[in-house]
Every structure is written in C-alpha cells, then in structure tokens.
Amino acid sequence: MPNYKSKQGKIFAVGPRGEEVALGIKGINWFGMETGLAIPFGLWANDMNGTTVYEVARFLAKNRFNSVRLPLCVSHILTNQKPQQDVINIQENKAINASTYMSALSSIVQTLAFRNISVLLDMHTLTPFESGGLPWTSPTEATAFFDAVDVLTAQLCNAKHWNIIGLDLKNEPHLATWGDGTATDFQLMAQRIGNCMLSKCPTWLAFVEGINAPRTLAIDGKSFAFSDWWGGGLEEAGDKPVELGLESKVVYAPHYYNPAVYPQLYYLKSGTRAGDTIINYEELDDATLALRVQATSEHMFGHLRKTQEGALVMGEFGGLYSQDLHPMKTTQRATEALIEIMKQPGYAGGYLWALNPESAYQFNPSNTRVTTTEGLLDETWLNVNEPFLRAMAAMDSLPNLRSFPCFTP
C-alpha cells in the first residue's frame, strides 16, 4: 500500500520501492455518514431518484474527480452504528455491506478504490446532533475521540483500503484557539490526534484545519474586519506549526466559502451590513474580486506556503453556484477565483462542497436570507448540475492531477 507524504508543497504517494508520484486533488465531499442515517445520502436507488455507489464512482472518475472526503461521526464509529436500512437500496448497492457502520465505510472505500479514487476520512461530528466546535471538552471525551481514531486505523489501515489518504483530524474547530497552551489550543489537540493516528498508521496523512477568530486586513488601502471561515483560520500556524512524530505528514486543510454561506464585505465594491446580510451593495469587477479572494485566502492560510514544506489542500470550498442571484454572479466568481488560487505552487487541490443536492445555503444574493439547496447532482441524484460541473472542469488543469496509483508489491 502507498505511503502518503506531504512535502515540497505537494502530496506524494510513495511506492514499495521508494518511487514517488505527485498528486493533485480534484476532490468532492459526499456527506451523510456523520448524520443519524449513518450512510452517505443518495443510495436509495429507485425508479424516481437515488443512485448507487458504483454510479457515483463511475461519474466521479469520468469527470476526473480523484478523491472523496467522507464526513464521519465519532459516536457512530465507537458504537459501530447500523446504517438506516430504508435509505439504502441493498439490491442495487450490492457493493455495500450495510450491516454496521464500519462495514459500510469499508465497502464504500473499496468501491471507490476500484476507480482509483482516494478517500479522506473526516472526523466531522461528535454525535449526529453535536458537530463539536472542539474535538473534546473533557478527559472522557478526549479518550472517546482517540478510541475512535484507533478503530479507524485498526480496521482500515491496510492494503485492502490502500486508497485512504489520511484523516481530517477535526472538522471546523471554531471554538478553538491556536498556540496559546490552553485547554482549547487546537495546535496541541491536532498534534495529539495526529500522533495517535500515526502510531497505528504511519502511512496516512494528518489533515489539519484552522480555527475561527476575528481579523482585520487592509486590501488596496481599504480596511476590512471579518471572521475566518470556520476551519479557515491558520494565521498563527506559520509561527506555531503542527509538528508530528513523523516528517512530511501534515497537510493544512482550510475551508473557504462564497457569499452564499455568509456575505462578506470584501466580496463587494460597497454595501452596508444589515445583520447578516449586506444591503445596497455594488459588485466588483472580475480582477478586483480575484484580488480580494487572493488577499483574504493568503492572510488566512496561503501564507503557510512560505513557512512550511507541506501541501495546502482546501478541505471544503464552493457552496451555491448555479442558482446565484447576484446580477454579476459574485457567488460564482468567488468560487472560480479560489479554484485558480488552488493551482498556485504550494497548493495541491481541494474538496468541493458537495456532491449532495441537499446541501443548504442561507444567502442569495448577499442582501437576502433564504434557504436554498444545491449540489453537483440535482435533487434526483440521477442528473448532473451541468453549470456547476462545467465550472469544476477548471480544476482539470491542477498540477499533477491523476488517478491515485495502486502500487504492486
């Protein structure tokens, strides 16, 4: 099985004879296992809607997606929760063993491996009802978290699951601090989780997200006050990096979203904050918007390319696309600008949010609070959101984009 490494601003799969293959990631999130259903959404294939894991893998490979981020639930791992059976068509999804949580996860990973698609396991929620702004808040919770990591490494770190690239150590630790040595210090938490993983599975990578904190930034002489995107705040990681027991194992995996998730003044030429919306707004031209995305992403996490050797991979990005109601399509253009940034040296791609049509967004356009759903597939899970898919084709020019190699001994 490959040994995955993060160095020279790239991700490498290292074979049994030391051969190295650089890999860019055109990835996508496929959620559901972190919820009460305990299975990725969409697998209820019937005459009207739903699909199969075979079809998902075939579709992704056809469109050059080479990695899937699977959000998981800590409590489901520990109890080996049985997936909800009435949302899986077992006859059509013969590849999936849905008798337990871990058997379902194992079989999904193996089905994706058949198409040479890698998997990033994501410690997304603590329970189906608690996302967890911290990995733990007590010694008992910490023990449970490490036990869940041990279950994953014990059952999945083997040649049968060669395509697992690593573990996203905790999704969006937005209540954490960084580098202050307190009980909420995610730098220290990430080091503990990463070393726990590596002690049992030295071939995986540790994907490390950022925190959430208020920031100020001057762009072209204009000052902006904003908060990091949840998971995006890695401003302090340059001076206080995550250091693990093995070299070349850290991938910083920030999140960065468009205005459909939350309207930001830096996305606009002008406007007035009114609660969470921005009223009387005026949109930016393409070049200035791209500059704003570059400046804010560089401030949050892009600066790490200058201070550390590991790769940057966007753990989540995107959001609403085809339904953008901004007259000048600011929501679309923000995502397009970030994709271009992902092609710069030091980045190794990212994971679009999301395959699922159930993904919900609260703002469209920036002056209007709504609830809108959109994913790369439409609400039937049978048809493609063509404008979104065309936009993602821009990732096809990522450096080193290729299928993940399955090395022979």
Automatic annotation (TrEMBL):
<dbReference type="GO" id="GO:0030245">
    <property type="term" value="P:cellulose catabolic process"/>
</dbReference>
<feature type="domain" description="Glycoside hydrolase family 5">
    <location>
        <begin position="26"/>
        <end position="358"/>
    </location>
</feature>
<keyword id="KW-0624">Polysaccharide degradation</keyword>
<dbReference type="InterPro" id="IPR001547">
    <property type="entry name" value="Glyco_hydro_5"/>
</dbReference>
<dbReference type="InterPro" id="IPR017853">
    <property type="entry name" value="GH"/>
</dbReference>
<comment type="similarity">
    <text>Belongs to the glycosyl hydrolase 5 (cellulase A) family.</text>
</comment>
<keyword id="KW-0326">Glycosidase</keyword>
<dbReference type="Pfam" id="PF00150">
    <property type="entry name" value="Cellulase"/>
</dbReference>
<protein>
    <recommendedName>
        <fullName>Glycoside hydrolase family 5 domain-containing protein</fullName>
    </recommendedName>
</protein>
<keyword id="KW-0119">Carbohydrate metabolism</keyword>
<keyword id="KW-0136">Cellulose degradation</keyword>
<keyword id="KW-0378">Hydrolase</keyword>
<dbReference type="GO" id="GO:0004553">
    <property type="term" value="F:hydrolase activity, hydrolyzing O-glycosyl compounds"/>
</dbReference>
